[in-house]
Records
---
Amino acid sequence: MPEKLFHNGYGYFNESGDEYVITRPDTPCPWVNVISNGIYGLIISQAGSGYSWREHATLNRITRWEQDLIKDQWGKYLYLRDNATGRYWSVCWQPVRRQPERYQCRHGLGYTIISSLQEGIEASATFFVPVDDPLEIWIVRLRNLSSSTRHLSLFTYLEWLLGVAPDWHREFHKCFFETEFQESLGGMIVRKHLWDLPGSQWNRSWGYVAFLTSSPPPGGFDCDKEAFLGRYPYGSLVSPRAVVEGSNLQSMGRGVDAVGCLRVDIELAPGEEKGVVFRLGAVEEPVEAGRLTAKYGDLQAAETALTTARCFWRELLSPLQVKTPDLAFDILNNWWLKYQAISGRLWGRTGYYQPGGAFGFRDQLQDSQVFLLINRPELTLKQIRLHARHQYRSGTVQHWWHPLSEMGAVTESSDDLLWLPFVFIAYLKETADFSALDVVEPYLDGGEGTLYEHCVRAINYVLSKLSPRGIPLIRGGDWNDGMNATGLQNKGESIWLGHLLHWILVEFAYLATKKGDWELGTRYRTQADRLKEALNRHGWDGEWYIRATDDRGTVLGSKTSSEGKIFLNPQTWAVLAGVAPPERARTAMDSVERLLEWDYGPLLFWPPYTRVIPSIGYLTRYAPGTRENGGVYTHAATWAILAECQLRHAEAAYRLYCKINPIRRGQDPELYRVEPYVTSGSVNGPHSLHPGQGGWTWYTGSATWLLKAGIEGILGLRPTYAGLVIDPCMPPEWEKVKVRRHFREAVYEIEIENPHHTGQGIAGVWVDGNPQEDNLIPAFADGGVHKIRVILGPTKKKPHAY
Ligand code: GLC
């Protein structure tokens, strides 16, 4: 029997950890998969609900969906009807919701397979997106386990949206649909003669053609919702007329409430199995619908495409693999964090909790660091270049922008622009590709500059917005979007932003000098020193750093504050950015452990705000203890792990890691409730109505950062310009760890032994059997595989650390 890992009563991981198997449809919340190839994407829950999009999940949604996570009743559905008895059910639980005899939903990397057994028919539906075409494919297999021949009909059902979601004025939108069944195509073509993209002229058609086709070809169809469901007020998704009666009205035309119903009739002898392939997509030209239908023309072609997609994901994620004594740690790092970051955050940019599609300036930049860890730095550079193109000559940037409409917003957010140099530096440390400094990109308002210049403009802009005390102004909020009113009058300051700026000034000074820009290098170094001095003079509250001051000079995050006494980010970043002197660094993190850490991780701040304070911003409007109002904000919690590692608090780092590890949290599904295989954006804090409940899964910047916390913090593999530093800070009880990581055109097979149970310190390092001077492993860049052996223990010589 294959082992069921981390079984929690609802599901478990398969033996290799790359598939999550849900065994019943009634999980405490929708447990979904976000599958995207960068152009086309779909999201599907364990019950079979969800939606599809092309390029932008909100501005270009293909199928209708409503954000009702309690009901989860919008999706693309499959009905099965036994034509002898007239009984019917749905393959994936929704929407008929009859209790199946057996049910299984397997969410994997790039695919979901839902199978069920009802009425003697074993059905399985595989949903996936081929590697580089704008469509999804469903492979449905039906097997007759009964002893008589069965005459079945398989119906699809979905509502076409074709444009901007939600199309709340439905009677209006309906007037623009054109549906057409094409026998030669084996399915339907749907157009919409209106696309109300925000910021553009309404008088235009949806820029694509949607199609839904099947093999074998359908025996019936409906393109009109009323024809399929039945007349008002009796039609419903639980008992649609076409399925109840077993026949279609073959409706099509213009001005219908457009749906996609194809009926495929199947006869199955006892024991016989047959397969049906459906293709659903959006293409620029109608001929493409035919081409893609032919390309994925039968079961075999569809199965081959599925294998290709599965191999694609495994190969993409494989370059980094770890084996530690903590299986939950390994499963996250080997597969799910990377998959979540790429499929969910970077390519799909959407989830159930936040249906999106836009790019956030700071969000996807940070996410794109994931590619550095899997030997695809060119994709990080691509992201850096994309974001550089959303910067103005002044150095400011768009807080977010929409692909397709290219609409963007400049806000008063004060930190966005600094993530450009932050991620660029990470890219350079991974690759040492200094030629990238000279890559040219345009500014949004004309002119162009090298990436180096783009970064300098960003830094200089922040430097031009310092308070009289020399601390950056918080303006319309920094990393914490919810502090959007704290400094609107250009007086309030951000201590956290000061820390981030300090890190950037120090790092960029090095780059400037390397480039021969001595004057800038010196200036940035001087400014870094001055900033550090100001932050320590005005930011220290006695036992921790304050968070900010508002426009009236009120301090946020001080022992004198009644709510919001201590915030997490200014403590973690004082350490990470090298602002805090050693004694303060320790005291600040001790305060974090004492006042912010609770059962499910470190809170973003404590206590939460219980009344609305408009002058701080909308974070005070959230229910106390949720999201940015003092919940565990996972993105920020990952920085606490890194800060503990930097201070060599191995035990604390790992304890925090375990507390926010969704696999461990998922062991208590009635409390945690959300998916155990991806990170949640936040977990409700002790002051909330449902302490410990997770939320906002998938669409969270915590995936990449938790990966970094595990690999660069706990396992201590950190790229530097000079090479790869190996400097673990792992639990003292771990005996041995293996890591396979690519670094600059070579593969490093690393074995870390911990015979003295220190979990840190470097007693010896060997490369390909040869003893090394220290723990800085050079870049071999020879395309080879190198064996690195590290023995932890008391250190004779000071190792390379931070
Ligand atoms: C959301 C935003 C992110 C921000 C965070 C904290 O996740 O997408 O940019 O940093 O909230 O407010």
---
Amino acid sequence: MEFFIDTADVAEIREAQSMGVLDGVTTNPSLVAKTGRPFREVLEEICSIVDGPISAEVVATDADGMVAEGGRLAAIHPNITVKLPLTVDGIKACKALAGRGIKTNLTLCFSANQALLAAKAGATFVSPFVGRLDDIGQDGMALINDIVTIYRNYGYATKVLVASIRHPEHVHAAALMGAHVATIPFAVIRKLAAHPLTDKGLAAFLADWQGTGETI
Ligand code: G3P
């Protein structure tokens, strides 16, 4: 399973990268706005930190505008993956960009039918938002299960990128379902390593070791 970090904060990206488990980065307009920095500058810095797909989202809402913005974003670095909203125009733009060999990530996916369209349009990734579905009382992970099953049924190459992850259980469930990628906020990446019995066990090992007076 691939792990992406879901942030535009380069300090978080550097810290997660130092763990050696990062395969890519996803950003969105809200995450970039939060940094208060110029979009291009942030993208260039992220590309210099992580050698993997880096999602950068368009803000045009018409297909021609999305293709034009997507082309400009993709020209920044070969690892840039153009993030497009899962609308009719986004699907048209995906088809056009994919035809030019540009990697795409169809975002704001909330249904299996939207994911089916993304695959048919040749998307590199589809991003179902599990947390936002949970927020409105629906089952985000049930959508992941549906999409993984549908893609397997027809052998689609589009990768399922689980987004809007809120807690480690989302990652666990996504891995069991065979989702290809989880894009995870920094705080949740840190939580993946945490277990109270690990802390308790380590404290006991260190206390016992100290009693031996030995060094390694
Ligand atoms: O980047 C897309 C997605 O992961 C956003 O998550 O927490 O804003 O629903 P969230």
---
Amino acid sequence: MNEELNDLMTVLRFASVSTNSAQAADVRACADWLVTKFESLGLSVALHETPGYPVILARNAHVPGRRTVLIYGHYDVQPAEPMNEWKSPAFEPTIRDGRIYCRGSTDNKGQFMAHLRGIEEILAKEGKLPVNLIFLIEGEEEIGSPNLRSFLETHRDELKCDVVAISDTGMVAQGVGTFTYGLRGIACMEVRVKGPTIDLHSGIFGGAVANPNTMVARLAATMHDSEGRVTIPGFYEGVKDLQDWEREAWMSLGDSEPETLELTGAPELFGEAGFHERERRWARPTAEINGIGGGYQGPGSKTVIPREAMMKISFRLVPSQNPERILDLAEAHFLAHKPTGVTLEIIRGHTGPSYVMDPHSAFGKAAQRALAATFGGKTALIREGGSIPIVQAFQEVLGVDTLLLGLALPDSQLHAPNENFSIQCFHDGVRLSQALLHELAL
Ligand code: BES
Ligand code: MN
């Protein structure tokens, strides 16, 4: 096997699921392994404890007058469930058809390990890096980076840099260099619908009390109209149209509808009326129910009225939408639509603002030159629908833009069973990282 992949295979075996405290030891073991790895490159490394999982900082010897580049990544991963849908074990990296299958292979271990490998090769060949480097890897991205902003604030001086680079987004296709200049934000919420104080026999009591399952379904149905628009009052306040150059850049990528149909396997596409499929995913805000349930879910039937039902919601947000304000609006909306016979408990979850930068800025152009040098051909200029909550904080706390140079393919299955990372993308990522550092060097 390819020796360059050894370290990646090792990192992938840590089941570093940040949302599940049962896997805390694996998350920490992954952090410890990374510290040792960075030390072996001759970088100075610090593992910083936070109230959650540690932040790792690695740096070379900084030389005054040179550019300082901060590369960010995350070593935590999403849960691997449902386990039985994996064709090979979720935490045993397995190569099939040029892809490494494993939870975290693309999101984000494969992508930050490409940078690590790129740096390792430069150091081996040239003995030093062309820039002052700060490599920051955190372990809480998949739970909304709850401790990273305050970490940036307390370590502001140490983290002073000219620009941030992240590979944690997608490419429009294999071999097509892709520069992402915007991300959607996110705001999460859980709604619990409470009825009787105990589960009830649905024959004895059915008809006399409200069923929380029915009521959570009613509440869920109040969030959209029949044309896919979100009906929460104020939700679209201040949301702007695409600029002409964006529309042109996106249209030049060709029609995305057939590919999205194929990738999703959905019987047809559906979304907010009046917008193209790509605009719906990259530039329109949405309300999604990520989980819904209550009552009996096992085999056969059970005649019960559950005492409680719930739904978990996430909103994807675009510039001008404030995540906390969106949660306020949603809360007011649900209370206004509270069904009869139940009470609501509304639990606000994590939030992160959207991000858009100017791809025609000096750093944006440097990144695009690195992409062109690595991939040849035309570089795609896109926004993405996913969120990386800390990117906005890099701008607000450190005052710098983030260059998003993604290596995920459209069918990399992030967050889903059979997540995979293309070995070609890993090698391209190694060259991209090197090209980027050379482009950014003064
Ligand atoms: N790498 C993703 C974000 C992403 C994926 C951006 C694809 C663009 C294209 C990141 O790790 C992620 O999954 N973020 C979460 C954030 C959330 C849990 C706070 C997301 O978007 O759901
Ligand atoms: Mn993710």
---
Amino acid sequence: MLTFTPEQRRRFAADIDGDYRPKTKKTIALVGLMGSGKTALGKRLAVALSRPFVDSDTIIEEETGLPIRNIFEISGEAKFREIEHKTILSQLNGSPVILSTGGGAFCNPNTRAAIKAHAISVWLDAKPTDLLHRIGNTSSRPLLNIGDPLKILDDLRQQRMADYLQAELHVKTGRHSLRLSMKKMLNILEKNSYIEVLSNKNDK
Ligand code: S3P
């Protein structure tokens, strides 16, 4: 679980256009490809809703003491998915958080079923060129280091689309600013009665 410094809190709050309160007691799980904005938007959503922020990859790295790319190298992807599944299950069993999941987590049928049963799933979607633009340096993403990253992201998006489409809510993050993506995500959460708007900065 990540705690923010007052400076981070201020920075994240600058991308939030109002005051909001969760109406759900469920965890909100962000799913989608690498570079779709799960971590950046997840941290801002956590500040907006005063909920803790948790990143499944970070927990895995803390608990194993290894960077994700080393887990892939040493133990392989199948073992990583097993660890990822257990990590996400234990988060879903705890108090509600904003959970950023690794890009492949929602494509594991067992992990997806658990998220769908216990959390509100939000798919953040963007085109491969936008994803790669946001990722920048691919060295910490083992799946992108085995060929042309743009082609890999394109293939992964096609392979995983049917899984991501099973998420409850969809937000297109494209190349939008974090502020605009936050607005879209908060609007969708509000329309679905998962949060309430206490005040809107545009009204002030
Ligand atoms: C992966 C995405 C990564 C990380 C691992 C595998 C994937 O997480 O879990 O490298 O399968 O798409 P991010 O989506 O947070 O980069």
